[in-house]
Amino acid sequence: MTEPLLKVRNLKIGATVYAPGEPPEDIEIVHGVSFDLEPGKVLGLIGESGAGKSTIGLATLAYGRGGVELTGGEVWVNGRDLLQAKHRDIRRLRGAEVTYVSQSAAASFNPARKIMEQVTEAAILHGRCSKSEAEERAVALFRKLGLPNPEKIGNRYPHQVSGGQLQRCMTALALCPQPDLVVFDEPTTALDVTTQIDVLAAIKEAIADTGVGALYITHDLAVVAQMADTIKVLLKGNEVEEADTET
């Protein structure tokens, strides 16, 4: 039996809460969550706001946002426990083996740099390919993701494309280094319904064509049913249920 691409065991995450006039209080916000993700599969994490979905997604990059700490458990990617890894090894992994697509592409792109520069940057810096190879990959991904004029769109700045197009560019950015795992953190939340449908279809096709494993985070059951092979339901930092989409 092959080793899972991503293996999370009894993950616990804590946070420090500050209230006016009160001393800081340490609380636990994720309470022993476990799951596996096989190569080429999509696992959907679904739950209400505050359920811990995004926090768990960021933990797969060994990252905790300000005031958040990974307090226990294991996170294995390609057979390595990230919570025991050295910082330099984690830096090599982020943007190469594991990449991330956030809710807001507009907030993630640098407005002063052209799209192509940003889409290819991680692949080049991590030595995954040369600049010319990265640009070829980017154009191919632009085409795969249904972007107009894929040979030229990379020469534009982020404000020169629509929100839906920029979200697809961000997906291209995540796929350009040819990672093993991509974390999609509610990537269509900021889009209107019609654009969401188009972007979701493009993302699903790109995932299938590249064979990448994906963790897809959402609060929308219809979306996760469309995107995922397996769904895990979370409630207030606890795992409630896990099942294959077809069942």
Write up what this structure looks like:
This protein is α/β, with parallel strands linked by helices. 33% of the residues lie in helices and 28% in strands. It is built from eight helices and ten strands. It has a six-stranded mixed β-sheet, with helices on both faces. Strands 2-1-4-5 form a four-stranded antiparallel β-sheet, with helices on one face. A hairpin with a 2-residue loop joins β4 and β5. The chain is globular, with a radius of gyration of 18 Å. 38% of the residues are buried. The mean pLDDT is 90.
Describe the structure concisely.
This protein is 33% helix and 28% strand. The protein is α/β, with parallel strands linked by helices and 247 residues long. The mean pLDDT is 90.
Summarize the topology.
Elements: E1 6-17, E2 25-37, E3 42-46, H1 53-59, E4 68-77, E5 80-81, H2 87-93, E6 98-101, H3 105-108, H4 115-125, H5 131-144, H6 163-175, E7 181-185, H7 193-210, E8 213-218, H8 221-227, E9 230-235, E10 238-244
Parallel strand pairs: 3-8, 3-9, 6-7, 7-8
Antiparallel strand pairs: 1-2, 1-4, 4-5, 9-10
